[in-house]
Amino acid sequence: GFIFQVASFQGVVVRSLGTSSPHDHPEHGRLVYKGNLAKTVLGVKFFSYSTSIFNLFMMPYIMLKSGIGVESLLVQAAFYGLIGIFTFVTPVTLHILTKGYVIRLYYKDEVDTYTAITYNAILAEKVTVFHQKDVKIPDITKMFTTFYAKTKSMLVNPTLFPNPHDYNHLMGYDKSSFFKFEDLEEVKEADER
Question: Residue 61 — φ and ψ, nearest 5°?
Answer without folding.
Answer: -65, -45
